[in-house]
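Record minuted for everyone:
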Amino acid sequence: MADELPFLDSPTYKWIFVGGKGGVGKTSTSCSIAVALAKKRNRVLLISTDPASNIGDSFQQHFTSEPTLVNGFTNLWAMEGLNETLDSQLQELISFPGIDEITVLASLFKSVEKDDFDVVIFDTAPTGHTMKLLKLPSTADSILNIIPSISSIAPMIMGGNADFGNQFNKFKVLLDDAQKRLTNPKECTFVCVLLPEFLPLYETERLVTFLFENNIESHCLVVNQVLQKENVGKCPICTKRYNSQQKYLHDIQELYGDEFRIVQVPIQEEEVKGINAIKHFSEFISPIISPQ
């Protein structure tokens, strides 16, 4: 039952992924989870795997591919723009299927391992890209083996000009460790974000199926931009949209109510930008953060 599921502030969680269809409020949700967990954990990292990352816009602060302390915090860091760090020679190989994701994934896990963070929140790209990213640790062998020049790629990924065999083995160990953590339900979980609409719900069903098929734990749903009945008034369009949302909210509850903690976030009057807006948003997702 949903009431027996763990909360996101569980001390065993090391990785928390946040994802869903584009435009459903993944970044606002990711930032809010990070801010909420910063009250509970000593060292928290928020990292974007989305090439079109917006966490800098959300916090109204510039972030780089290195962990940067978020203004106003002493224990919350953020980073984005990993694609920009790829070597120019490596960029020429991006046309090979999967190479961009592999290099970003390797850079991602290397960056995370540099510091001893209590928990890392991943603000992911839209669903399709994220599914490829999460699948990579288990499929990297076949992808890498099709590259004739693999001996020149691994050193660029791992850094330096060390022996290829040693570097490749380190790379493999990195991905193997990532796969073990991704599929450990005590250490990793995935938060699905959606809107009470057809397409976001459809993509959520696809995402949840993918997660379960790949043994990646997920038990939290965040439904954003929910209209409140008292705010509909006499607007015919608002009433129609409200009724439509209620139908999909019912469907969401029917589909996931027994196996997921579900929170509904009211539609916000303004964009979620700046720390005060993020803190306000985080109040709505508190039911999945902590029992207190």
Notes: The longest strand covers residues 188-194.
